Amino acid sequence: MIQNKSRDMHETEHDAIDTHRVSLKLSPTAVALHLRSKLQRRRMAKDLAETQGNDYKCARFHLTLKINYKHMKENKILVLGGTGKTGRRVAEKLTGLGKAVRVGSRSEKPPFDWENQETWNDTLEGMNAVYITFQPDLAVPGASETIEAFTSLAVKKGLQKMVLLSGRGEKEAQVCEQIVMDAGIDWTIVRASWFNQNFSESFLLDPILAGQIALPRGETLEPFVDTDDIADVVVASLLEDQHDGKIYELTGPRLLTFKQITAEISKATGRDIKFKPLSIDEYKNMLREHQIPEDFLWLIDYLFTEVLDGRNSSVTDDIEKVLGRKAKDFSEYARETVAAGIWEPAN
Ligand SMILES: NC(=O)c1ccc[n+]([C@@H]2O[C@H](COP(=O)([O-])OP(=O)(O)OC[C@H]3O[C@@H](n4cnc5c(N)ncnc54)[C@H](OP(=O)(O)O)[C@@H]3O)[C@@H](O)[C@H]2O)c1
């Protein structure tokens, strides 16, 4: 009788695991591997139940999910904005580690466009985790609705982890962060300061090639951070459980103003690059003359008025805490960029 009861329980448990296996698209081998250490899991579940006050069955189920997820991490990772400044590096590093990666962007197949929800489903198909870099910025009006819709679809499609790139000091972006935190799956939030690579892979490259950086907020101290460091933290967050439920604030090791950055680039390139201070209105007018769209000007206004008001004028050691090494200094980034020939004008 006792034996039958135990067999019944075993069968019910087995059915439950099998249903779970199919819904999570795990191979029978992966499940067999989990079951091999069943006894050990029983003990761990008891400990978990005792420490967290859950009942034993609930704790065991929780543990099974965690263990299944560990195996799923060996599977597919979606990198949104995977051709951009952080995404490209994250995709390359993951691929280098032998992970299966899908890049999401408008130019990929299948295409992914934040502005067209119909493109999301195919890109999410078969993915287990996602690195989210939103466009143009989590603080823009409407971003939270888009993130809400995206995260619910991601959860529905069976994803188990989201790593979100956010902007340091952007209160509006924190609404989106909270949506990711509340989605019911594992998450890590990576809040970054201004990227070094804005000077070599973005809107500040052309002014450097032309010999003059003209910007507002020339005196604000900012801890510019390298996207290589951000990518390393993101990769660790995607692959290692200890980063679940963490918010990281990533900065470089040194506070610099745009004026000082200009001097650093001048020194590294050996060229005379000038800094011209502008008011925010002068800067926006200059961008308007270059036919920059009004919604981008809204973002410029927000970033230069609110975020660059000095609130981020402090460094953190989160990069060192996660990676066990110092964050890259701007001078090292400048040396590498010079060596790559990126700041050499065409003639
Ligand atoms: N730049 C900084 O200093 C900084 C600092 C902190 C936080 N952030 C945050 O980092 C995120 C990325 O910003 P970023 O300026 O550095 O850009 P980025 O990652 O270099 O962005 C380019 C990437 O986004 C893709 N993309 C552009 N528009 C898209 C759209 N509508 N739908 C889907 N993919 C799109 C591009 O590919 P396709 O063109 O092929 O679509 C490309 O892969 C933003 O959320 C920003 O707020 C930036």
From TrEMBL:
InterPro entries: Ergot_Alk_Oxidoreductase, NAD(P)-bd_dom_sf, NmrA-like. It comes from the Bacteria. Residues 177-333 form the NmrA-like domain. Gene3D superfamilies: NAD(P)-binding Rossmann-like Domain, UDP-galactose 4-epimerase, domain 1. SUPFAM superfamilies: NAD(P)-binding Rossmann-fold domains (SSF51735). Pfam families: NmrA. This is NmrA family NAD(P)-binding protein. It comes from Agaribacillus aureus.
